[in-house]
Prior knowledge:
There is one protein chain. By secondary structure, the chain is an alpha/beta fold. Helix content is 35%, strand content 29%. It has a single domain (2-184, 275-403), classed as FAD/NAD(P)-binding domain (3-Layer(bba) Sandwich). It is built from twelve helices and 22 strands. The two termini are 36 Å apart. The model has no long low-confidence stretch (mean pLDDT 92). It binds flavin-adenine dinucleotide. Residues 11-17, 34-37, 50, 52-53, 138-139, 167-169, 173, 191, 193, 229, 272, 291-292, 299, 302-306, 308 line the site of flavin-adenine dinucleotide.
Amino acid sequence: xxxxSHDVLICGGGLAGGSLALALAGSGLRVALVDALxxxxxxxxxxxxxAYALAHASVRMLRAxxxxxxxxxxxQPILGVRAVDGRVGAPPSPLxxxxxxxxxxxxxxxxxxxxxxxxxxxxxxxAAPRVTQFAGARxxxxxxxxxxxxxxxxxxxxxxxxxxxxxxxRRSGTAARAGLRRTVTAYGQTAIVCAxxxxxxHGGIALQRFLPAGPLAILPxxxxxxxxxxxxxxxxxxxxxxxxxxxxxxxxxxxxxxxLGRVAMAGARWSYPxxxxxxESMVAPRLALVGEAAHAVHPVAGQGLxxxxxxxxxxAAVLAEARSRGEDPGGAQxxxxxxxxxxxxxxxxxxxTDLFTRVFSNDLPGLRGLRRLGMAAVTAVGPLRxxxxxxxxxxxxxxxxxxxxxxxxx
Length: 410
Ligand SMILES: Cc1cc2nc3c(=O)[nH]c(=O)nc-3n(C[C@H](O)[C@H](O)[C@H](O)COP(=O)(O)OP(=O)(O)OC[C@H]3O[C@@H](n4cnc5c(N)ncnc54)[C@H](O)[C@@H]3O)c2cc1C
């Protein structure tokens, strides 16, 4: 028997799918949220070691959804961003990119750990009216018929609604089953993620060091803590991950520079293979993609989740408007509005992070000189610096209501 009591089916209850469910339910839509993993697994503090650099606009959106209030005390405002070119053991180049107090809105964004953000989102979902969760249930088939999309779960249940959303990550089965092709470019790099404690305060500065093998980010967490994202060539990363903790720290320390004083490991190491993965379209008949199901980018600029949240905010706005006009939420015109709104931003961010990764992950002397000059030039030119700060904070362009801080349905 088919359960057709929902307006939207979401396949994937990660940070993108979960935020979308909250936003849609807030504007009056009935949502079915399906995720292959049980709730207890996703809520576990050891589920994901990442900490996210959330842009100012993403923080606004999470506040509008009632989630940020639960995590604010455990987050760290990003008061500045500094990007420097360097080599292991050598002092950082004085020609750097620096952003700080360019925004009249306040901080550029905030850092929050996954183990803080994800449980807060899940608690909000558990309390949300109009969200029915199917946890520990995998979508194994889907079809599109007149006026509806339907999915079959591995539990045997069948759900149908006018619109299906694929929020099932960079290997999106939803996109594949709809016949959408993907372009996948492996970077041959792995990101090692871990946390450290340090003696000297970080001052809220997110530091990106461009080393020849790949970028290394030192991202501020509350207190004298930082999250490290160390991108290395795959084989080298595997060897580093196999080292005992003290040997790993000995390899990491010379890459951090000297600003933090004495450092120590805080907890486990995680690893994430890095690739650019783009679906050929963000929509198909009765289907929209959000988050990494549509686009997974290199974490070099800390933009992946921010991009996903921008998808969510735009789709929520388009569907709320469709609802107020009495339109079919899965109709071709409604989906075309979403694809138009998000297409350019997605392509631009994918191209920018890809170029960044290629230009910075090498040690060619000519290129090294050019990129150092480029970063210093942007820092020296006020209007350029302000434009970049607005871009990094997610405040540039046509912002959906959630990213302006307006509550859903408000
Ligand atoms: C090292 C690293 C650092 C990063 N740092 C930042 C940062 O600082 N700032 C930032 O903005 N972004 C960052 N990102 C990117 C960010 O982590 C991702 O963009 C984000 O987590 C993706 O969320 P998602 O919900 O789109 O996908 P996912 O988290 O992959 O969620 C997909 C969900 O779908 C479910 N699923 C899959 N298949 C099925 C199925 N058939 N049926 C049911 N459910 C299914 C899965 O169980 C999963 O829960 C970083 C990424 C990396 C690798």
